[in-house]
Amino acid sequence: MSTRFKFTQRSIDQLPNHSEESRSRFAEYTDSDTIGLKVLVSKAGRKWFYARLTFNAVKKAIKLGEYPK
């Protein structure tokens, strides 16, 4: 599966858990329609929405909430 796709409830539900063998803690997926909108998936399968943005030349990441809540 590509890491960039249109976010729908079905596509987010089908995201696999992040690999246990990976050195990183999360897998990151990007919405193709909304700039900066991301979903992080943990090794346990938890999912969070994030917004990544630049404000006054400073990069920020804002946690929007856990999926599906």
Topology of helices and strands:
Blueprint: E1 4-5, H1 9-13, E2 26-31, E3 37-42, E4 47-55, E5 58-67
Parallel strand pairs: 1-2
Antiparallel strand pairs: 2-3, 3-4, 4-5
Describe the structure.
This protein is mainly beta and 69 residues long. The protein has one helix at residues 9-13; strands at residues 4-5, 26-31, 37-42, 47-55, 58-67. Strands 1-2-3-4-5 form a five-stranded mixed sheet, with no helix packed on it.
Features:
five-stranded mixed β-sheet, Double Stranded RNA Binding Domain, single chain
Query: Residue ranges: pLDDT <50 for 5 or more in a row?
Result: none
Order of helices and strands: EHEEEE
Shape: globular
C-alpha Rg (nearest Å)? 12 Å
Strand count, sense and closure of the main sheet?
A: 5 strands, mixed
CATH superfamily caption:
Integrase, DNA-binding domain
